[in-house]
UniProtKB/TrEMBL annotation:
InterPro entries: CD80_C2-set, Ig-like_dom, Ig-like_dom_sf, Ig-like_fold, Ig_sub, Ig_sub2. Residues 983-1003, 1057-1118, 1171-1232 are annotated as: Disordered. It is a single-pass membrane protein. It comes from Anopheles merus. Residues 1182-1192 have a biased composition (Low complexity). Residues 1097-1112 have a biased composition (Polar residues). Residues 30-129, 132-228, 241-346, 353-443, 450-554, 559-643, 648-759, 766-846, 851-935 form the Ig-like domain. Residues 1085-1095 have a biased composition (Basic and acidic residues). The chain crosses the membrane at residues 950-974. This is Ig-like domain-containing protein. One of its GO terms (cellular component) is membrane. PANTHER family: NEUROMUSCULIN, ISOFORM E (PTHR23278:SF32), SIDESTEP PROTEIN (PTHR23278). Keywords: Disulfide bond, Membrane, Signal, Transmembrane, Transmembrane helix.
Amino acid sequence: MNSIVIVSLWILLHISNTSCQDEKISVLRGEKVELACPIDIATCGELHSLKWFKGTERIAVVSGDGEVAKVEGSYNDRLSLSHEAQTSRLIFRSVEIADEDTYLCETTFLEPSELCENSGAYSVALNVNAVPSVITLQDGNRNSIKNGSHIGPMREGQDLQVVCEVYGARPEPVISWHRSGRVVRDNLVVEEHNGLYTVKSTLSLTLSRQELGATYNCRVEMKDLKLSVDNQFHIDLQVRPTKINLSGVEHHTVQGTKVLLQCQVSGARPAANMTWYNSSKLITEESSEMTSINTKTYLQNDGTFETISQMIFTATRFENGASMRCEADNIVMREDMDRPLHDTLTLEVMYPPVVSVKPENITVNETQDFLIFCDYEANPASLESVKWYRNSQEIKLNSVRYEGGNPEQTALLIKNSTRHDIGAYTCELSNSIGFDVSDNEVYVDVIYKPTVMLTMDPEAPVIENDQANITLLCNIVDGNPMLLTKVRWFLDGEFLKELPECEEETLGTDENLCEVDPSKMLLQNVGREFIGNYSCEGFNAAGWGDVSEENPLDVYYEPGNASMVHYPYIAIKRRSVTFNCSIEDRGNPAATRYRWLRGGKPVLDVVTPSWTVDPVGLDSRTTFSCFAYNEGGEGYPAEVNLEVHAPPAFIQKLQPYTGALFSTGNMSLSCRVECIPSCSISWFKDGIGIDESDERYYITNTYLPAEPATGDFESAYSVLHFNMSAWPNGILDRIKDSSNYSCVSTNNSAGPGVRSTTYFGVEYPPENTSLSSTTISVEEGKIPPKIVCSSRAYPEPAFYWTRNGETIAKGSALIVDDVLERSDAGKYTCTAFNKHGNHSTDAYIDIHYKPTCQIMRKEVEDEDVLICVATGSPRESEFEWSVKYANDSLQSHRIKSDPYESYLTLDDAVSAMRIYVCVASNNVGMGTPCEIEVAGYVAWWLKGDVLTPYILIGAVAALLLAVILVCIIIICICRRKRRQEKFTGESSTAGGSQIEPGEYENLPFHGLQTPPKKAMLCKTNLAPSLKHHNKTLTPSCFPTHPYNYINYQKDCQKGGLQAPLHPTLQHSGLPAPPPSSGEPPSLDDSCKSAERKLASLDNSDTLSSHSFTIGGTRSMKRSAEKKLIDLETVTPLYENLTDSIQIHETTAPTALVPPGKPLILEGPHQERYRISLKKPGRKGGSSRSNSAVSNSYYDCIKPIPAPRHRKYASTNSLVSKAHPGGGGERYDHSQK
């Protein structure tokens, strides 16, 4: 029954899978997944049980209440259940490929209602996907290809196979190949194993040029996983070049010019290799220094390379008609064994003639004619000139002996040749391009018969056994050729022999004596039969010459049997000697072996009858002996004592040059000559022998023994001593004693004497140094001529030039290349020097320039004189005077001049101011004018007379005395008037005003109802008794110190006046009187305070300034205009008694009240005034009056009426006049 149910469920599940499924789930392998099964308890009622099926296999069961939940079979380790009221879940901890299936959830209810729509099964399709584990690219050899890598290099035409393979993917991935966005066909193979797919896509290509720069992309796509992977590779393709182009010379070129050929090859990858050929000859930079090859490669857009090769060479005639070929190939062409691409360019080179002459040599007899050919090669071939040279000297072809040698016939025919025609001939040809001389030459030899002379070697008589051989020499003295081919020998006029002894047809063979030198005949084993007179006759190519003069030969011999001989008999140093040992009776058996002894010691390995000792040295001078021996014993020895001679030769020779200072005290020359037999040494001076009787010299000769250590034979040593005491004055003559000294040895039997010569120079330091010019004058801005310095000295001196201790030039000539300035004038020193000393001389360069002048004014002999002084080079100048801006001419008798100064006497009659101009000129030119301004006629008291100062001083003293007397009188009068007013209390006008109605308007009191009648001093408070440094100030009147304190008041009795303080008291640090409650301080307090502060004053130069305030707030009618009287421009009546008084309108107090508290003066007239005392002419507002009596005492001061014609001035103008500098600041403050 259960099986039926299961089969039914499986059929039902299968039908549901094929038709529809309740839910589909896709997950990746290894992920956790939950399959949910919904439970409709609300509709279907209580759940009985729930079962999970995988396909038809039940894998889990859950009870309705969830208390029993069981996973069955092999799924127990991988699955779990989660059961809730509405949902039951089957949980996969790690899903696998095998888990992919359709899962069925079957629900069983206890009592399902009619409304329950549950079919009893809920289907879930589980799809398990897998991401590819490996995606690879491999070539045909299964070699891995990295993503983005290059394959290659590959060659055009090769087959390429690339496999793109995907492992372990699910569902089946899709592989496609792409090239430049287009899909490429491939071969696809799909395999499945354990539910995973392996897909392999093979891309097969036959590579062509289209694959250049190609990129192939293998794309793996899994749409279900939204996965797309690209793996790409690039093909490094090598292709052959496609095009070659050779460009360069279009028409022709000229030999010697630079030729540029350019070969351009394109379409190759890798870049093409460029090769240059001249016809078939390879061209490289190493093969020719005149060829430069530069090759550059450029990458093109298609991935191929363009190669440009430039060959630069100097065109020569060898390139004319040459085919210049450029070949290009690369590795593709070489491996395919393809011929390189090539392009050819044929050159035409114009070149001058290339000349050669022939034949190489010409030999003719005298009087015969000969012809020389001049062949050439040229482009163009037409000639312009032909020249022939003999021994590099041009041949003048105007003689009748010459024919040809012109452009039509270049060959040269020389008729009737002489021996003077011998030489090397060359030919020079020229065309429109240039000329050339033949690089070879023809040597012409004109032959003539020989002249001979017979000599013998040796010349001296010989001994038969000592000198075994004699050589007869037939020497050619003149003739051409200087070679004898045949010689006839004669003895006592009779024909003896002709050499060589061969027939003409056998010449050049080795079968006879044809190769023997015919000019030498060897007489061997010379004996008595050789005695006679010998002569010879020579033959050369020109024929037989004349017979020589006879030369006798004499041979000495002695009787007896010679057992041993040697050649030469007397050995010569450094030559060889041959010993021959012979016996008359050879013995029996005949002896063939010999034994030799040298110095009594056996010589090993020598058993022959001849022994050659080579070379002969000092150790050869010993005893040589030999004897023959055979089996029977030793024969009688023959003994020879070898004599060795040394030809004269220098061991120590003279130096080519010997020098000595003329004043030397010890001088000698020495030489040493090796010679055996001994020789003597003689001394010569300029070829004349030095006699031993000459007291100027003495000679010491020594014959030195042999030196075995050095191998030197006995030698003669000679020293020539200079006896300096015998010379005039003990010194050498510089001319006579500079000579050639020779050391000459005599001949000996071994050779001729030797000579050694030295030039003996008498040396001396430089002297008599002179200059081509000792003084040079040159204008400024020009280049001076050169100065050449010479001096006598031996050895020859060198030179250098100095100036101011510094070297400025080397060499005998001083050459200045730059223009000179006047600072370059001065002394230039030339110094000549050699190893013995130096000597100097001076040159002076004088720079000439235009003069500059200066005018001075002096009194000369009681006359006013202008002196014009010129400074220039040369100093001698001419002067010219004139008056500037005037047509007046100067009287010549008032001008006196010398070459350096000019004097102009001024005319006293000239009253106008003049400007006098002086111009100086020298031989360089006219200088810049100078001028001076001279005032007109000067009064006698302004002249610089001796009595004038005394007269002026007396006049000033008299004037001062008069002023002082007048001032004293005025002061006395003033004091008397003030004293009267003090007692009467009235003014000098008896109570009336001295001011006229018209004058009152001009006073500073204008605007008051009643002008003040007088100025008073407070006797008790304001004027206490003060001590001055030289006077006592009484309180009767305020003291007339240069800085007075003056107060104007209306009513001193009312106590409404308070005097302001001097500015120095304001800032002296004394405390100000404290103000009362709204009331001004009392007059007594003010006066006492003023007394204390006045007592602290000394001679300060501070300007006195006093301000007063009268009344309440009533202002003056003209207060807005702020006018004041400029008393500086008004001369008051008492100018000499008082300082200048300025009365200013003011609005602010400056006195004893604290800052900001005005000083109130009560009265019917409430006007504001400020009175300032200043000294004119002093800086900073602290001026003093220039009055002579400004420091005198006076009693009272009152207002001074001003005349009507005086003008008013503004406050600012008075401030600027009275207080320049600091004083102005105080006045500005009062106006504010």
